Amino acid sequence: MDSYLVYYELLFVTVFISFILYLRKRPTCLPPPGPRGSFFSGTRSIIVTRKDVWRQYAEWSKIYGPVISFKSHKVNIVVLNSAKSIHNLLDSRSKLYSDRPSSAMNQLVGQDSLQTRISSRNPHFPLYRKMAHEELAWKGMSRHVPVLESQVKSLLKNLMSDPKNFSEHLRSYQGGSVMKAIYGYTAESSDDFFIKFIQQWWQVNNATMRTGSWLVDSYPILKYLPSWMPGAGFKEFAAQRKASIDDVMSLPFAWAKSDISTGRAYASFVASQLNRQEGLTSEDEEIIKLVSGSMYVTGTDSVLSTMLTFFLTMTLNPAAQKIAQEEISRVIGSDRLPLLTDRDRLPYVDALIKEVYRFHTPAPLALPHAVTQDDMYEGMFIQKGSIVVPNVWAVTHDESVYPDPDTFDPTRYLKSEDEKGHVQPDPRNFVFGFGRRVCPGKQFGESAVFLQIASILATFNISKALDAHGTEITPEIDYKGGIVTQPEEFVCKIVPRSDAAIDLIMWSH
Ligand code: HEM
Hints:
- Helices cover about 50% and strands about 5% of the residues.
- By secondary structure, the protein is of the alpha+beta class.
- The protein has one domain: CATH 1.10.630.10.
- The strands form three sheets. A four-stranded mixed β-sheet has the order 1-2-6-3. Strands 4-5 form a two-stranded antiparallel sheet. It has a two-stranded antiparallel ribbon with strand order 7-8.
- Helix 14 runs antiparallel to helix 15 and helix 16 runs parallel beside helix 21.
- The longest helix is centred in the middle third of the chain and has 28 residues, at about 235-260.
- The chain is globular.
- The structure holds protoporphyrin IX containing FE.
- Protoporphyrin IX containing FE binds near residues 116, 294, 434, 444 and 449.
């Protein structure tokens, strides 16, 4: 009997001490407010099904405040819906907030060593960033400017001969520019193998790798399920994706290496990195392969998305288009195409481009960050490992910063005649991401966007297409879901502005 008593006393003391320890460890402050969703799966169904989920987050922020949190199964998600919270956490505390979410699905798919996914705590992370910066910041990328400028001429010719397929021509421009700059590869058309290959890969990736959508991220033990069991279909999918990511990384890299061995290769990223030092180890080479592959994966669709928004907004806003065209005619004339060096002399065109970025930012939720230790923000507890999502769309549609946000208006960024007007913030400070994860392709992407937009405005009129009865077709402002979003398919009319423009398209060198 006594031994039972001692046993129960010990049990009681253990439970009591554990309870006290639990209370001490438990955060005294609450996480950011937000919707609770269903008991089992939290808000997962909304995250997975709503295509414009950034609007949902912005709506929730009106109820709960700019910083909200919720769960998708067991994954904690914190969404930052204001410029202030994004700046205070992702920029000012970037040491803590620059990790990527740890994801069992990403590991299964083999994406965790890509630059977009690699953990900031991985010892190779600084080297990835350094390499990408060397190549794509102004100094390194200036040697690729002639490629961007000459590709524009092919784009204009394609738009003139086959305007209906403008989206394909834009993809071909950007895919071709990236392939040349990164691997030294010349793509001849939009049917090129490497351009099609990455297009198909990216479409699946964009649709399937949403933050918090895979059950295995909440319950990593599921990865041990045998593949034949009901509910384990994700393993088969992950195995297929793993094989394709290996090809995405290896095939263009192998092509570049064989081209370099001929001694006549273009000074691409891969060529300059491989030639940088004697006696590269296989590990060094693997890193060059992964960094170049990451640029191949990310470099096309974000620029394409911006360009499609440009065509959509020009179709809907002829007045803004006309002012930009007049500025180009006045400043540059009609006997040459705009160059990158003309940008400072084209303030309205520059403002129009800012407005394109703001109107529908290519990646409305950027890429998800993760926090590496418990943190407090304005009295709210943010738990280590939480996924932190910057809602860039909410910032660029915040009425207190950008009044009447659904109106396309480049004059937001221009001073009034008397130079006293209030200028709204440059959206490019948000659309390229934050802290140590800010987009390394920003200058490359921005240059490609400027050259395309300025040259298209110089040579074409974009307007509403007509249907079979001669009635104008007004496209909807409706975007696909995904990490990088694009307008749903739409039609528009693209015709050269004049005979002089036709000459410029045909004969410019
Ligand atoms: C209009 C064009 C572009 C936009 C709007 C854009 C936007 C972004 C955004 C929002 C991120 C996530 C940043 C974050 O997590 O805070 C990102 C990351 C990245 N971007 Fe871009 N991007 C563009 C063009 C490019 C180009 C042309 C390249 C390469 C040729 C590129 C390469 C990358 C890479 C490698 C990352 C991952 C960086 C990391 O996680 O460390 N981007 N980009």
